[in-house]
């Protein structure tokens, strides 16, 4: 694929979700399996009239601050929550007032369904707005639509697509214990098949942090987590369409 076609496809993809890319965003989200240099992109981008700038609107900034407060007030208190990342339109910097706040949550091994149940109860008890199953999107609600545990960091093959690849390169980590964000990105090398420039540049920056890629601690089967999983799965079963749930992961976005 030529660079010109890559740029055109990237602009069209962003437009589909209501985004107008700046130069820095184009470099981050350039569609294509080949890594392109900054100079190459600048040269071609000029023919499309793409402007410089950060490209994040005021609404997105407000929602990012809100998500950080949510993590500090609620999720930071959960010992088993290791990473939280903002995804979707807020991470893209193009959020509208009626957009919710998409969050990816990674837990310790064999603790995903315990944490999810405890968090669900706390959100209801505190009356914190969050998106319900098959509920309509409401502005500033938290949409906890992607869950993983630390032993299942690789996105499953049937979920490896342009949408999820783009979400990973755009993701904004707001909680990162034990360098799990770096480990997560490293595990998902397949992202480079779709957005090689953004993924390669991000990995180059992350390598400079000199994080330790430690092995996941071996743990005995957690029966509480298993029972929490079975209970929640039975509750979801009549409603499940394209969603994908397992003991170590949950993908609640039907389009992803």
TrEMBL record:
Alphabetized SUPFAM superfamilies for the sequence: Nucleotidyltransferase
InterPro entries xrefs: NT_sf, Polbeta
CDD domains: NT_KNTase_like
Domain Polymerase beta nucleotidyltransferase positions: 71-123
Top-level taxon: Bacteria
Leader sequence residues: none
Pfam family, one: Polbeta
Protein's name in the database: Polymerase beta nucleotidyltransferase domain-containing protein
Source species: Candidatus Shapirobacteria bacterium GW2011_GWE1_38_92
């Amino acid at each position: 694929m030529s660079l010109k076609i890559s740029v055109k496809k990237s602009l069209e993809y962003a437009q589909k979700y209501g985004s107008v890319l700046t130069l820095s965003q184009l470099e981050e989200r350039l569609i294509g399996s080949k890594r392109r240099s900054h100079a190459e992109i600048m040269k071609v981008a000029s023919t499309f009239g793409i402007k410089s700038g950060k490209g994040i609107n005021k609404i997105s900034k407000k929602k990012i601050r809100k998500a950080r407060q949510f993590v500090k007030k609620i999720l930071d208190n959960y010992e088993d929550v290791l990473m939280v990342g903002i995804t979707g339109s807020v991470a893209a910097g193009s959020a509208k007032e009626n957009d919710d706040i998409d969050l990816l949550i990674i837990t310790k091994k064999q603790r995903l369904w315990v944490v999810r149940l405890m968090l669900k109860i706390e959100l209801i008890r505190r009356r914190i707005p969050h998106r319900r199953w098959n509920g309509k999107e409401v502005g500033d609600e938290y949409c906890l639509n992607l869950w993983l545990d630390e032993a299942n960091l690789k996105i499953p093959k049937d979920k490896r697509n342009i949408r999820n690849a783009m979400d990973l390169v755009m993701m904004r980590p707001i909680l990162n214990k034990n360098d799990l964000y770096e480990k997560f990105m490293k595990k998902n090398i397949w992202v480079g098949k779709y957005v090689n420039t953004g993924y390669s540049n991000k990995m180059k920056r992350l390598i400079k942090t000199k994080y330790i890629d430690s092995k996941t601690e071996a743990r005995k089967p957690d029966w509480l987590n298993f029972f929490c999983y079975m209970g929640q799965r039975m509750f979801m079963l009549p409603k499940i369409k394209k969603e994908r749930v397992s003991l170590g992961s949950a993908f609640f976005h039907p389009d992803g």
